Amino acid sequence: MKVAIVDYGRGNLASVANSLHYLGADYLIATKPQDLETAGAVILPGVGAFDDAANSLRASGLAPALICLAQDGRLPFLGICLGLQLLFEGSDEGRQPGLGLLPGRVRRFPENLSSADGSRLKVPHMGWNTIKVNPLNPDDILQDQSQVYFVHSYYADPVDSAVISASCDYGQPFCAAIRRGNLHAVQFHPEKSGVTGLAILQAFLRDAGIQESEGL
After folding, report:
1. Three-state DSSP state, 208
2. Angle at which helices 62-72 and 50-60 pack, to 10 degrees?
3. What is the rounded distance in angstroms from the CA atom of residue 29 to the CA atom of residue 168?
4. What is d(CA 139, CA 15) in angstroms, rounded to the nearest whole number?
5. SS3 of 175, please?
6. CA distances, 51 to each of 11, 29, 57 (Å)
7. Is residue 189 scored above 80 in pLDDT?
8. Which residues are annotated as catalytic?
């Protein structure tokens, strides 16, 4: 089985593809709904603007296909960064609706963020930070207290906090990952998070039944 990496013109495809290749996983680049039909799992990566991404997904016909796949739980699904944000109803970044798979909105970090020592924090949140796994909704592809790489100015604000699988702190707590059934999504970039990120992707592949777990 192959992993379908969704290409809607806004994703970080090369880094994700290189990571899957390193892990020995077969993948295909999905540009139309038919490309998802033979996949064993789906990854929705993304960088860039929310409205552009939402419009591209709808124009290609991928939006309704992804909604169906995520709703019926047929395939393991992983959203990355903008790919997480698109799962929600909308974003402060734009006016277009998201996929609406999760109730809630994507918010912008306020400009007056400060660290524990009082120093001002810049937006976007860029660099390494530590995630804390939610013990009430743990996701076995994540490890508590992992150091992972973030690049974002916006974060998801779910209506139902029970879907949050991990949180992080950047002047305030924010949702770093979500989990609902076969739907996984992370605000950080596992493909840029070194050995830790590769372990997350490998755990996703293992849970998807695409390959056996092997040490990195």
Report:
1. coil
2. 90
3. 31
4. 23
5. strand
6. 14, 22, 10
7. yes
8. 81, 189, 191
| Beta-strand relationship, 164-169 and 154-158 | unpaired
Position 141 pLDDT exceeds 80: yes
Q: Kind and range of the H or E element at 79?
A: strand 77-80
Between CA 26 and CA 138 the distance in angstroms is: 27
- Per the listing, tokens 């296909």 go with 65
The amino acid that residue 124 corresponds to is: P
DSSP 178: E
pTM of the model: 0.96
Judging by DSSP bridges, how do beta strands 102-108 and 88-91 pair with one another? parallel
In the predicted structure, residue 12 carries a pLDDT above the cut 80: no
Encode pLDDT of 52-83 as tens digits: 999 999 999 999 999 999 998 878 999 999 99
Structure tokens at 185: 């999504």
Average pLDDT, the chain: 95
Q: Where are the domains of the chain?
A: 2-207
What length does the chain have? 216
**Residue 87 has which token pair?**
């799962």
**Three-state SS across 81-150?**
CHHHHCCEEEECCCCCCCCCCEEEEEEECCCCCECCCCCECCCCEEEEEECEECCCCCCCCCCCCCEEEE
Q: Averaged over 161-186, what is the pLDDT?
A: 97
> How open is the CA angle 14-15-16, to the nearest 5 degrees?
95
Strand partners for 104: 158
Architecture of the domain defined by 2-207 = 3-Layer(aba) Sandwich (3.40)
